[in-house]
Design brief:
Helices cover 42% and strands 21% of the residues. It has helices at 20-36, 68-73, 79-96; strands spanning 2-3, 6-12, 45-50, 56-61. It has a four-stranded antiparallel beta sheet, with helices on one face.
């Protein structure tokens, strides 16, 4: 999507396996974590909100290569590059969980 003249990623969150309160708590937790963390290997958090139907969403930096799943499962990158991505992800996650 587009937001403030930037390409952004919009993560729609569907919680059919959670109650509405559990879903809201998870969204708040993820949004708070993303807001507080600034790291080269973690997407930048731009905001969060609720759709007209009540579905929550999170807006983050857009990554040109696409989703992490697409990058790691796709054939476009050689294995050494995929391993580098995995290492960078681990570094970012270590920061989040420290």
């Amino acid at each position: 999507g587009r937001w403030r003249d930037m390409d952004v990623a919009v993560k729609l969150i569907f919680g059919s396996f959670m109650t509405e309160d559990e879903l809201r708590r998870e969204i708040d937790k993820e949004a708070t974590m993303l807001y507080m963390v600034r790291h080269a290997h973690i997407v930048h958090f731009w905001g969060a909100g609720t759709m007209e139907d009540g579905s929550p969403f999170i807006v983050t930096e857009y990554m040109e290569l696409g989703t992490l799943t697409r990058v790691l499962q796709g054939p476009a990158l050689p294995w050494p590059a995929k391993l580098r991505f995995a290492k960078e992800i681990a570094m970012g996650m270590a920061l989040v969980h420290s």
